[in-house]
Every structure is written in C-alpha cells, then in structure tokens.
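Key result, reporting period 2: structure in, sequence out.
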C-alpha cells in the first residue's frame, strides 16, 4: 500500500469487502439486476459506517467487520482467487482453515485503519451490467480530502448477490491482496500449514 491519499482511499474500502485460479472468477447471471446490486452495496456501506461510528476498537471491532464480510462478500471465492494455484494442492481441511484465516486477516488489517474515517460519506450513483455481474459506482467523501470514485463488482451466487471485488482508481482489491498473500506464502516456504498460522497473526 502506498502511504498517500491513494493509500487512505484503498485502506478505507478494501476492507469492505471484501477478494483458486480463474475458475473462481464469477460470470454474469440473469438473476442479478442493477437494482439488486445497488441495494446490496447500500446495505453493505450502511453497515460499515454503523461499525465505524460505534466507538468499538480492537477485537470487538474486528469481529463486526468479519460479520459484515461474511454477510455481504463472497469470502470463499475471494480467498481462493487471492491465493491462486496453491489452493488446488491444499487439502479440504487446509482450504477451510485458510478461508477462515483469510477472513480474520482482512478484518484485522483494515479494521485497524477504519477509525480515521469517522464522518466520511458514500453515495451510490449508478450501476451497469458487465460480463461478470454488475459494477456499482459510488462517490466517497472523506473529511479534508477530494471526493473519489469506487466501483464495486457484484455477482450472483444462487440468487444471492455478493460483492466479489472493488476498484479504486483502477486498482483491484483482489489484485492488491493477491500480491500480499503471495508474498506471505513464499515467506512460509510454500508450506500451507505454516502459511495459515502466519496468516492468523497477520493484519
């Protein structure tokens, strides 16, 4: 992450989320509408700001963010896509442990930075259908900073719309986290169990 205004923007919204290989990437679904995707993102951001302004810190705050991720985001698909090829060689037990550790990692990593966004505002302005679901456009206003645009990728999982990725100034959440998770995996010597234990303490 860059230490700049761009970094602040990413820190704020990458945790809203909240993102195997190509097979995990969703495709468009006729059941998903632009209105449904907008509704999801409005609920997601409302919950985020409720937590931000609750006054909670530390473990209670992280638990709230973890709850939000599990409710609104495709955590399993995001985790698989972020890890990449090592997912396919992991055992079912390791895969489950990794997904759980990944959710906790995101909650801690971005939850620590959320307190600085008290009083921020976000407004959904449009949505459009794309090849892989719906892109929902929103404008974000932070105190003392210029407004910026964030696009949220939403897809349908069995008539259940979920957030899969988001783009801030052209930067994908999944791409950013893939690099960081890949680095952590390499530092674990490519050992899945060791990597999972490291991930539990990361963020």
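The corresponding designed sequence is given below.
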């Amino acid at each position: 992450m860059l230490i700049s205004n761009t970094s602040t923007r990413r820190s704020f919204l990458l945790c809203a989320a909240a993102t195997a290989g190509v097979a995990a990437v969703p495709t468009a679904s006729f059941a998903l509408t632009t209105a449904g995707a907008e509704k999801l993102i409005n609920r997601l951001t409302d919950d985020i700001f409720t937590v931000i302004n609750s006054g909670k810190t530390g473990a209670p705050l992280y638990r709230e963010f973890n709850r939000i991720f599990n409710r609104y985001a495709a955590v399993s698909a995001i985790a698989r896509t972020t890890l990449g090829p090592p997912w396919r060689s992991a055992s079912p037990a390791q895969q489950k442990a990794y997904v759980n550790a990944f959710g906790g990692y995101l909650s801690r990593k971005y939850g620590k930075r959320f307190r600085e966004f008290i009083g921020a505002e976000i407004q959904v302005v449009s949505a459009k259908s794309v090849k892989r679901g719906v892109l929902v456009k929103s404008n974000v206003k932070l105190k003392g900073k210029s407004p910026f645009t964030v696009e949220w990728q939403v897809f349908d999982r069995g008539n259940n719309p979920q957030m899969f990725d988001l783009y801030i100034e052209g930067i994908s959440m999944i791409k950013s986290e893939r690099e960081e998770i890949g680095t952590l995996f390499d530092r674990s010597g490519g050992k899945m169990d060791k990597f999972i234990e490291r991930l539990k303490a990361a963020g």
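The chain has one domain: 5-201. The domain at 5-201 is CATH 3.10.450.710 (Nuclear Transport Factor 2; Chain: A,). This case is discussed further under Risks and Mitigation.
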